[in-house]
Amino acid sequence: MVTDLVQIRSLADAKESENTEFRRFLRHHHVPDQVFYNVAVEIEHFIDCRACANCCRQTRVNVTEPEIARIAAFLNDPVETDLHEYVEEDPVEHRLMLRQENDACVFLDGNLCLIYEARPDACHNFPHVDAHGSTLGSRMSSVVRNAWICPILYNALEEHKHRTGWHHHKAQFTGTFPGTPSH
Q1: Which of 6, 50, 97, 105 could form a disulfide with 56 if both were Cys (CB 3.0 to 4.6 A apart)?
Q2: One Pfam match, by short name (predicted)?
């Protein structure tokens, strides 16, 4: 299992076309997404996110007013203070986002979240490997594009290739997929 972020970034960059080819293979062969989600959950048990925190450096987090209130209560601050100090408005989408400071989430200290118990849902659910979600890990195209961000996503994608029997440039089906009706 690869956990070094520099190595993951390098490997993901080198496998960009391979991963796109794999995504097309999955779609063409109707591989159920649940197969990937199961692999990702398995991989998640072996990765310590506190050793990484790359998601806190590479992604931006939208926050809702109830999440801001939850953070403010956790910090024992008035909501207005948190809005001013920790939140900014996205200039394009006009949504509230946690502010970035030193190329990371304002609440990141080393690799630890200072508001872990009150963190926004997007942070709590990362890497979103959920069949019913609509974010990063819930769509294979997002996983393929963003595998470099998260060791869970990268390793789950590589294991998914292995378990489906897929081979780069051959893209031949060599097995059966759990949950797929046989023909």
Answers
A1: 105
A2: CxxCxxCC
